[in-house]
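Issue 218. Parser rejects a valid record. Input:
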Amino acid sequence: MTATTVATRTERMHRLVGEIREVVGRGLPPDLTAYLVAERLAPHLGAPDLLTPEQCEGDPDCYRLHLLHGEEDGSFSVAALVWLPGQRTSIHDHLSWGATGVHLGEECERRYRLISDGRAARLIATADVVSHQGEVCGFAPPGDIHRVVNSGTGTTISLHVYGADVSRLGTSIRRTYRLPAEED
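Output the parser choked on:
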């Protein structure tokens, strides 16, 4: 992943950040916060005035993260991820709750469950989810192990809101899994 911090924020992004701030400020449980943030994100997806042209630029070598906002108190971050065809994440989980939505294109996600018998651990694929423009989801650890890929022929842009300060931490990823994965 290539990371870029972008200081410019559109008026629509400014409004979205305010809506997220209001939800996060309620101090609700992580899963409910993620769900409510995803609801606030949905109406903005696909809007031509959400991102600047620079925030839509990809990287030919790997998916690109444009950090759009890091809340001063560290309670959340907003990022745009730009995926060129074939780009993917490793199998990973997250440090905090999160909400994602597809702004352009479609994103393919494979979800996993970690199984351990006391001697060895392995991952079991549990679901494949294809999200199209305007679709959102929320998640909260534990149990948020997944891999994301742009399996289409065009650019995909997704918006990610994390309940952590990605600008300070450098990533939202808690752990990358290199365990054997059973693919169904």
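Fixed in the parser; the record now loads. The two ends are 27 Å apart (CA to CA).
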